[in-house]
Specification:
Layout: H1 7-25, E1 45-46, H2 98-105, H3 113-126, E2 131-139, E3 145-153, E4 160-165, H4 172-175, H5 178-183, E5 189-192, H6 204-211, E6 216-223, E7 229-236, H7 244-278, H8 280-287, E8 296-308, H9 311-317, H10 320-340, E9 344-349, E10 352-358, H11 364-388, E11 396-411, E12 416-421, H12 423-438, E13 442-445, H13 446-452, E14 458-464, E15 473-478
Parallel strand pairs: 11-13
Antiparallel strand pairs: 1-4, 2-3, 2-7, 3-4, 5-6, 6-7, 8-10, 8-11, 9-10, 11-12, 13-15, 14-15
Helix pairs in contact: 7-8, 10-11
Length: about 500
């Protein structure tokens, strides 16, 4: 029979043969008391990042009907389904299972895992598999989040996504959950939720599902490359829970579900890592193929360069951990307003940073000035905390200019940096250095002031020669909420 299958089907048929032999040697597992998804506390749940969120929508079929009309007249018994969608043996070439065939062949253009989970659960209900609730749990790579949970319940047209902070794995809510068991090595957790006395249920989540009318729960690990362990769970809303045939059917989906989710999770992590280290705009360019040395474009931008004062002496005087905490607090104060108002951090340079506001946004210069005002207020608040804790007060210099820059790949043959270069960047850097001489924290070039179209909160300081430039540059101080640099 294997010779009649296409190459992809041969792989699954071979896997199924091996799995079938395993089933023959394993005794049927009873619906035992186990140890689902850890319900997050308000402190542990974060805003969902865009790379995770899919907006689920059914696509219209050729006859004008919507896909969510699949099996509106649900068969209560899987044995009556046309085409034997499920059988007790769990034997399936992909063409014998419409759902498996869909999972392997029809979701390749669907980027978001939550959309796939929603449609998978709807399709299973349509053929009589009584899934009333399902979750997927992923550990990811992110500077703020340990992982994410996708939840689907009957009637939901899009998945609910929650991200969880580092440390959630040590909270009482997580420790008292079946998910903790799977992450600690269990290969299956199953729980009968029809127990008459809910006090017999081990975990709080079991009691919640019992109250919602769910009858059976099962969780399995799904293994990605290099042993990375993630989790999928299903809960039944049918009296008696899942039958053996249901369980076999769900298990048969796991290899395909594993491959489908791994591809997308790696895509999410690649985007996350690139966004973390090079910023959102540069990351999308790199993922789109801008990886050749020298490749790039010329863009007009307002340029901001910022640097801490006396950071070398701070580093020498204070313990390493205190220095890192000070530096991170400073970058939080500076970066959050910049990103909030449309700027992009291109790089951190020790205790400094380089950011641009592309002039494709007509409000770029205005947004840069708002960012500086908010950053100054944030640094002032940070310094008040530093004084209370006996720490060093942070002082900084900011140089701002506007002009055309080359935006692209610079570096060696094997190590590239996606950054900006050009005379405009050099002028912004020279202005930042000048802040120490004139004892003003924020200096702007006349070119930027003219582009901004407003001299309110600007004080002309005259012309200054800048290193590497033939002509002096007219310089302005930004006076909104300005505080003179002390002892600069």
């Amino acid at each position: 029979m294997l010779s009649t299958l296409c190459p992809s089907n041969k792989m699954f048929a071979a896997w199924r043969l091996r799995n079938h032999i395993r089933h023959m040697t394993d005794s049927a597992l009873p619906r035992q008391t186990g140890r689902v998804a850890c319900k997050s506390s308000s402190s542990g749940v974060n805003t969902v990042p865009g790379e995770w969120r899919g907006r689920y929508s059914h696509t219209a079929r050729a006859d004008g009907r919507r896909r969510n009309l699949w099996g509106m007249e649900m068969q209560s018994s899987i044995e009556t389904m046309a085409g034997s969608e499920i059988d007790d043996r769990g034997s399936w070439p992909t063409k014998q299972s419409k759902i498996l065939d869909w999972l392997m062949n029809d979701v390749r253009d669907q980027r978001f895992i939550d959309n796939i989970l929603v449609e998978l659960c709807e399709k299973m209900r349509a053929i009589g598999v009584p899934v009333g609730r399902s979750t997927m749990h992923f550990r990811t790579l992110h500077p703020q989040w340990l992982g994410a949970r996708i939840l689907w319940r009957t009637g939901m047209k899009e998945g609910d996504i929650a991200t969880f902070s580092y440390g959630v794995e040590n909270t009482p809510q997580f420790l008292a959950s079946p998910i903790n068991e799977i992450f600690n090595g269990a290969t299956e957790v199953r729980q009968n939720l029809e127990i008459s006395h809910k006090d017999e249920l081990t975990y709080p989540l079991y009691k919640e599902m019992h109250a919602e009318g769910l009858t059976d729960y099962i969780a399995w690990p799904i293994y990605h490359t290099l042993g990375k362990r993630h989790i999928v769970t299903f809960a039944s809303d049918a009296p008696g829970g899942f039958t053996d045939a249901h369980i076999t059917f769900l298990k048969d989906l796991l290899p395909a579900l594993t491959m489908v989710t791994e591809i997308r999770l790696k895509n999410i992590m690649a985007r996350t890592m690139l966004r973390t280290y090079v910023g959102p705009h540069a990351s999308e360019k790199i993922l789109a193929g801008a990886t050749t040395r020298g490749s790039g474009t010329t863009v007009g931008a307002a340029i901001l360069i910022c640097d801490l004062r006396d950071f070398t002496s701070i580093s020498d005087m204070w313990p390493r951990d205190d220095v890192i905490e000070l530096l991170n607090g400073y970058f939080d104060a500076m970066v959050e307003p910049i990103e909030k108002h449309g700027g992009e951090i291109l790089k951190f340079m020790g205790d400094g940073l380089l950011a641009i506001f592309p002039l494709s946004d007509p409000e770029a210069c205005h947004n840069l000035l708002i960012s500086i005002s908010e950053a100054q207020a944030a640094v002032t608040a940070l310094n008040e905390e530093n004084r209370k804790n006996g720490r060093e007060v942070l002082r900084y210099g900011v140089g701002v200019h506007v002009g055309d820059v080359m935006y692209g790949n610079i570096g060696s043959r094997t190590r590239l940096d996606f950054t900006v270069i050009g005379p405009a960047v050099n002028i912004a850097s020279r202005l930042e250095s000048l802040t120490k001489q004139v004892k003003r924290p924020v200096l702007l070039s006349k070119a930027f002031v003219d582009m901004a179209g407003c001299q309110r909160d600007m004080e002309s300081l005259g012309s200054f020669p800048l290193k590497g430039l033939g002509e002096p540059v007219d310089v302005f101080a930004f006076t909104a909420k300005e505080k003179l640099l002390e002892d600069a």
